[in-house]
Design goal:
The protein is mostly helical and 166 residues long. It has one domain: Arc Repressor Mutant, subunit A. The protein is 66% helix and 7% strand. A hairpin with a 7-residue loop joins strand 2 and strand 3. Helix 2 crosses helix 6 and helix 3 crosses helix 6.
Length: 166
């Protein structure tokens, strides 16, 4: 089966023509991952918006839900689990608190610290949104066979372990 060159292959061919002295083969992987990441983000955000959430707000609610009962974490811990700055975290928490999805209270061990927790409305929303999110991810992965998805997961796991600090 002969496939037509995709966007990345066309860019590589142009660079190979213009700069034959530079190895453009990394673009084959990086360029495609970058484009795929953009497409996936667009498709994932459709579900978040359906529940009135941004990607970051979904991530924050999910981090609280994963904490288990009583569904609480300190803001610094939330920042680590969601990989955002504490300043950005504060804005997300403010919006979610105004929407009645999270609460803030003083930490029991240290009255100066704060704890963010899911409200019952927040738990109900993230449970519904997460179910839809997983169905959406399954839909997106259906473009691959089970074997292809497993191979890709293993390759990405290996690569990420070599790049990302533990």
């Amino acid at each position: 089966m002969i496939s037509m060159p995709d966007h990345v292959a066309r860019i590589q061919a142009e660079w190979a023509r213009e700069r034959p002295d530079v190895d453009v083969s990394p673009q084959g992987v990086i360029g495609r991952l970058h484009r795929l990441g953009g497409h996936l983000t667009d498709e994932l955000c459709v579900v978040y918006r359906r529940f009135g959430l941004s990607e970051g707000e979904f991530d924050l609610l999910a981090a609280l839900r994963r904490a288990g009962d009583p569904y609480e974490r300190a803001p610094g811990e939330l920042a680590r689990f969601t990989m955002v700055t504490t300043g950005a975290m504060t804005k997300r928490i403010d919006r979610l608190e105004q929407a009645g999805l999270v609460t803030r209270r003083p930490a029991l061990q240290d009255g100066r610290g704060r704890v963010v927790g899911l409200t019952s409305a927040g738990r109900e929303l993230i449970d519904q949104a997460f179910t839809e999110h997983m169905l959406n991810e399954q839909r997106l992965l259906a473009a691959l066979t089970g074997e292809e998805a497993a191979q890709l997961e293993q390759l990405l796991t290996t690569w990420l372990a070599r790049v990302e600090p533990q």
